[in-house]
């Protein structure tokens, strides 16, 4: 019995007579996926790993900065926890200033430094992350870094004064050159510091004027408020006064001031008579000085001056006044000069 012949199946298309179009497309897609499997999986995973690592580093850095700020905010062992209350009235009441400004100054300094450090860490990590991600994507970093260098150089030349202000302000805070509540001398601006920023420092002078000083322009600072101060008083006495008696009166007056409960916390030592400071045309200057707590030297000097005046009056020691000698020439003197000639 003859075997039936089978007709082979053929694939034809209306246009070319080739195989159906979905077969090569499917094969091509599977080949492309197979060739790029590493790129499609590894690159996103690497980018995700980079982001996660940078976030962890940023969290650890911010936590460390927060701890540093909290440690700075903690009061020192010798600092009183409460500020001494103000007293009403005149005279010595001006000496009892609110010491809570020391904590305010410390808080502002610590928080500003913490904010600057946090921002710097965030910017650095962001730039590092962008560079690493671009490298994983396959973008060349050489041209980008060259362009960024040129732009940074142009900005540096154009804003060098602004950069100097910010760097100076940061160094002022880190070195604690002065802070809120300090009495400073910045050249033309002399007064009390009301605000310290990264770019500007605000100083209120004695007449109430508010000075805005760029930190980059501050070349030297005299701070009368750090650690301790000194009240210095020069007392003028007549040339015929007994200096030993003057020394005794000044020493007794200084000891009485040191034993006064209202001033005991303001004086760091007992007032000392340094001796004769100068010999002026009108009298002899005798100097007495005492160490005080910061910002209290002027009030102590005023009180000491008042007590010295009363003690010298009680002891009968004259405080000289400006003396002037006037020569009066009369007509008889002129005639005598003519006869001599």
Fold and architecture overview:
The chain is of the alpha+beta class. Helix content is 50%, strand content 14%. It is built from 9 helices and 8 strands. It has helices at 22-35, 37-73, 101-137, 141-158, 160-175, 243-259, 261-264, 297-315, 331-340, and strands at 183-185, 190-196, 200-205, 210-214, 222-223, 229-237, 272-279, 284-292. The strands form 2 sheets. The protein has a 5-stranded antiparallel β-sheet with strand order 4-3-2-1-5. Strands 6-8-7 form a 3-stranded antiparallel β-sheet. α2 packs antiparallel against α3. The radius of gyration is 41 Å and the shape is elongated. The model is unreliable at 5-16 and 77-98 (pLDDT under 50).
What is the CA-atom radius of gyration, in angstroms? 41 Å
Write the H/E string, N to C. Answer: HHHHHEEEEEEHHEEHH
Strand order of the largest sheet: 4-3-2-1-5
Q: Which stretches of 5+ consecutive residues score pLDDT under 50?
A: 5-16, 77-98
Based on the structure, what is the oligomeric state of the protein chains?
single chain
Mind summarizing the main beta sheet?
A: 5 strands, antiparallel
Overall spatial form? elongated
Report the average pLDDT across residues: 76
- What is the distance, rounded to the nearest whole angstrom, between the alpha carbons of the first and last residues? 183 Å
Considering DSSP H and I runs of 4 or more, what fraction of the residues is helical?
Answer: 40-55%
Strand proportion, as a percent range, falls in 5-15%
- The secondary structure category is alpha+beta
For the secondary structure, the number of strands is 8
């Amino acid at each position: 019995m003859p075997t039936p012949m089978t007709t082979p199946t053929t694939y034809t298309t209306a246009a070319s007579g080739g195989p159906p179009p979905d077969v090569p497309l499917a094969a091509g897609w599977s080949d492309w996926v197979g060739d790029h499997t590493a790129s499609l999986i590894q690159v996103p995973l690497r980018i995700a790993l980079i982001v996660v690592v940078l976030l962890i580093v940023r969290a650890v850095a911010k936590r460390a900065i927060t701890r540093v700020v909290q440690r700075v905010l903690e009061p020192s062992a010798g600092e009183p926890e409460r500020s001494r209350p103000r007293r009403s009235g005149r005279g010595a009441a001006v000496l009892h200033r609110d010491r809570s400004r020391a904590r305010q100054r410390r808080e502002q300094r610590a928080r500003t430094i913490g904010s600057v450090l946090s921002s710097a860490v965030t910017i650095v990590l962001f730039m590092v992350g962008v560079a690493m991600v671009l490298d994983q994507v396959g973008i060349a970093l050489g041209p980008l870094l060259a362009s960024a260098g040129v732009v940074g150089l142009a900005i540096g030349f154009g804003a060098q004064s602004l950069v100097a202000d910010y760097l100076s302000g940061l160094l002022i805070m880190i070195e604690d050159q002065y802070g809120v509540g300090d009495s400073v001398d910045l050249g033309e601006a002399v007064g009390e510091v009301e605000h310290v920023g990264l770019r500007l420092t605000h100083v209120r002078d004695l007449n109430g004027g508010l000075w805005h000083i760029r930190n980059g322009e501050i070349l030297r600072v005299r701070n009368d408020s750090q650690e301790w101060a000194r009240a210095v008083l020069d007392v003028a006495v007549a040339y015929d006064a007994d200096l030993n008696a003057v020394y005794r009166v000044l020493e007794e007056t200084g000891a009485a001031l040191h034993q006064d409960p209202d001033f005991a916390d303001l004086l760091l030592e007992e007032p000392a008579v340094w001796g004769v400071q100068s010999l002026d045309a009108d009298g002899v200057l005798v100097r007495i000085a005492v160490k005080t707590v910061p910002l209290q030297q002027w009030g102590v000097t005023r009180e000491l001056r008042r007590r010295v005046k009363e003690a010298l009056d009680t002891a009968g020691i004259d405080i000289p006044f400006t003396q002037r000698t006037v020569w009066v020439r009369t007509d008889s003197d002129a005639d005598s000069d003519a006869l001599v000639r």
